[in-house]
Amino acid sequence: MAEVKQRDVQVAEIGLNTLVLRSRSWSRLRFETEYARQKGTTANSYLIQAPQVALFDPPGESFTDIFLEELQLHQYYQRIDYIILSHVNLNRISTLKQLLNSASYATVICSKPAANFLQVAFADQPLEGRATQEDEALDFGIQYDAEHSFKLHVVRDEEILDLGNGHQLQFRFAPTPRHPDQLCTYDPATDILYTDKLFGTHVCGDELTDAHWRTLADDRRYYFDCLHAAQAPQVETVMDKLEPFAAKIYAPAHGPIVKHSLSRLTVDYRDWCQQQQNKELNVALLYTSAYGNTGTLAKAIAQGITQAGVAVRTINCEFTEPAEIAQAVEDCDGFVIGSPTLGGHAPVQMQTALGIVLSSATKSKLAGVFGSYGWSGEAVDLLETKLQDAGYRFGFEPIRVKFKPTEEVLQQCEVAGTEFAQILRKTKKAWAPRQQVADAKSDRTGQAVGRVIGSLCVITTHQENQHQAILTSWVSQATFSPPGLTIAVSKDQANALADAGSPFVLNILKEGRNLRRYFMRSLLPGEDRFAEVATHPANNGCLVLEDALAYLECTVENRMECGDHWLIYATADNGKVLESVGVTAVQHRKAATHY
């Protein structure tokens, strides 16, 4: 068994007076979907050592000890003037507290939403403050135990902080629903733009920059799809704000420094945002999150929807004007609304959003409800009752989660999101008018393409101790030596076959045996796809369907993006005919617009 590398901190110079401290882990850190490619990650912190010293983004608590040990080796550690937080979360508080114990004279710099979060996280009120106009900067102190406090400065958008020697840091608010406190920073002395959650990727390695950027293509797209696809309009708005900067380097929160493919990646982000917004169907996902738990549920549901090929517009109602919410509800084909329960009620922002939905969303739009709570969960009941009484149909059973969601719960939320998208697509077809005569030519073409038939097969995979299945008929032999296959898989099903080297079993079904029915219907949360099917494990760990006609043990060699599908090329490593007498099942279609 290969030895797993220990966590460490890689330090390197990336510009004038500027270091990066990359806290590295080669194993998967968390169970969120964005880490599912299991290539580890880096938590990037940056240190500018001008006449005044600024530290960007100390890492989360899993790196606290090794990060602070490394930081103490640098002569500037004892006189850090500023700690700049591009965004904050509970995971970062532990490191921040220990850092401030040694650098109590440092001023913490962040956005206003981040400052509000810090006051709650440090569980005390400001020591001192001053009355200011709403658009002015705020300066105050926060006491976080009997002996320690720190100074906090809330920056204005476009504010400049002069560290000396040309390092005049320029701040830009870059809020998104997932990170409403996000702050990006540009340093003209080095032409480095500190981009936080933009332009990153969850990959761990020894390479500091993206010199071999083509090998990162799939990981970058996967990172975007997980973090940003559901907030594409807001990401585009942020990119517009950052465009005036003449950046030559992107310094993201995770993964390699972006230097060699900056222009390419910027164009890719624009294209990916447009692809999301140009999809045929879209869902408005409205929520607020008091302690982050409802927001975590929202991310998992959004991921399931986007994997099913439906666009999502995620809106954190706490930071969104009612007019924008109303427009999103009007434009969407379906909506999902989630709320925490505070004092037995939904927050005011969610009550406002619910009122907008009830007054403007047509009854043909599919609805979904979710939320987290500590004790009673009345907010979820309120949302469900109001929408049900108004006559809306639900795309999944209301999701109620007590306290922090587990990995199993998040997987159920992802399944619910996928189910919602599938029902929405079927509903849209039922409501769609008949095509006009002008579309007859495209109809004829689709009918002709639909006459192409293929072997009906079930692909089985095994990831993270879970067996999964994909029913497909888009399979064809591709090579003789080695024996190879091509398989077209929809993008919402392609994650299991994402990486070269991924194993799977291709189960070839037998005509007349209705094994396919077990793999056609949507699963309920927690339901086992293989509960009523006889199976045994193949040599590669994936399942063989014992009632199949034959099976092949395969390995993914390569894949390419083709429209709304991925084309997978795989080699057949082993195989067996299970029934010598029998005919391969094939799928006959009448149109090319659906399976």
Average pLDDT metric? 87
Calculate Rg over CA atoms.
Answer: 26 Å
- What is the rounded distance between the termini? 42 Å
Q: How much strand?
A: 25-35%
The tally of structural domains comes to 3
Number of strands: 29
In percent, how helical is the residue content? 25-40%
Sheet with the most strands, sense and barrel status: 8 strands, mixed
| Spans where pLDDT lies below 50 across 5 or more residues | 125-136, 433-442
Shape-level CATH architecture of the largest domain: 4-Layer Sandwich
Write the layout of secondary structure elements.
Elements: E1 8-15, E2 18-25, E3 41-49, E4 53-56, H1 64-71, E5 82-84, H2 90-102, E6 107-110, H3 112-121, E7 138-143, E8 149-154, E9 160-162, E10 168-173, E11 183-187, E12 192-196, H4 217-227, H5 232-242, E13 249-252, H6 262-277, E14 282-287, H7 293-307, E15 311-316, H8 322-331, E16 334-338, H9 348-360, E17 366-373, H10 378-389, E18 399-402, H11 407-431, H12 440-450, E19 454-455, E20 457-463, E21 466-472, E22 475-479, E23 484-490, E24 503-508, E25 535-537, E26 543-545, E27 550-562, E28 565-577, E29 586-587
Parallel strand pairs: 4-5, 5-6, 6-8, 12-13, 14-15, 14-16, 16-17, 17-18
Antiparallel strand pairs: 1-2, 2-3, 3-4, 7-8, 9-10, 10-11, 11-12, 19-29, 20-21, 20-24, 22-23, 23-28, 24-27, 25-26, 27-28
